[in-house]
């Protein structure tokens, strides 16, 4: 979950909602940015499915020790069983999608020291190399495609976390293929823009679903999820415009 504090409690974006927002960002991007246009849809599928390995609600896995909703940024071990299941599901859908998701897993879990995780990440690297060779793809093109996946993921997280500074101050985002750097900002009217515009449309709106929780402390995941009216979300809207 992506959890932020609000005056009355917590805002909660589920990871699958964040992934859907990342997909929407990728879908709006210019197709010409993809080094391998024939794999664009597979890459977009990797963006929307990359967080499907998150564990299901169970006991108190989604609560802090103090009983608050657990934000994903707080240190936690890789849930190896769920990530292995995710890779298996990807393999039954698309080799290129598996390649992108495997690279993403290796990137986000690279600092974990568990022997099982280290072994699994090594297996993912070998799988990625095998897929790349089988599809006869250049490593440079593969890496550039992953930069798009990474850009969409990080921009979505930034938006869901509410991390964009106000009054036009800029922060750096993941640069896309052909770019050395890129910056994003939001003006006093809430309009979001990038120094290097990468979208087909000159202006558009995106939204992401979230829920609110009011208690400061929960006894179990069940108590937290029972308070969340699934199917009746609130919406955070994001307005993009090329300046």
TrEMBL record:
One family name in Pfam for this protein: DUF3891
Name of this chain's protein: DUF3891 family protein
InterPro entries linked: DUF3891 (IPR024992)
Source organism (scientific name): Algoriphagus ratkowskyi
Organismal lineage: Bacteria, Pseudomonadati, Bacteroidota, Cytophagia, Cytophagales
């Amino acid at each position: 979950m992506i959890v932020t504090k609000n005056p009355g409690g917590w805002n909660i974006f589920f990871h699958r909602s964040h992934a859907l927002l990342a997909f929407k960002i990728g879908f709006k991007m210019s197709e010409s940015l993809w080094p391998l246009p024939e794999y664009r849809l597979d890459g977009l599928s990797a963006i929307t499915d990359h967080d499907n390995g998150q564990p299901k609600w169970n006991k108190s896995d989604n609560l802090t020790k103090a009983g608050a909703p657990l934000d994903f940024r707080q240190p936690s071990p890789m849930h190896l069983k769920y990530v292995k299941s995710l890779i298996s599901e990807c393999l039954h859908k698309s080799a290129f999608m598996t390649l992108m998701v495997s690279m993403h897993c290796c990137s986000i879990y690279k600092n974990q020291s568990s022997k099982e995780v280290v072994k699994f990440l090594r297996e993912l690297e070998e799988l990625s190399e095998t897929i790349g060779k089988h599809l006869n793809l250049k490593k440079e093109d593969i890496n550039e495609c992953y930069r798009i996946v990474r850009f969409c993921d990080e921009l979505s997280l930034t938006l869901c976390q509410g991390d964009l500074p106000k009054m036009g101050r800029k922060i750096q985002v993941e640069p896309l293929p052909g770019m050395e750097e890129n910056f994003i900002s939001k003006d006093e009217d809430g309009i979001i823009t990038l120094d290097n515009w990468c979208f087909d449309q000159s202006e558009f709106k995106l939204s992401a679903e979230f829920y609110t929780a009011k208690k400061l402390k929960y006894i179990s995941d069940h108590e937290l999820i029972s308070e969340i009216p699934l199917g009746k979300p609130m919406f955070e809207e994001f307005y993009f415009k090329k300046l």
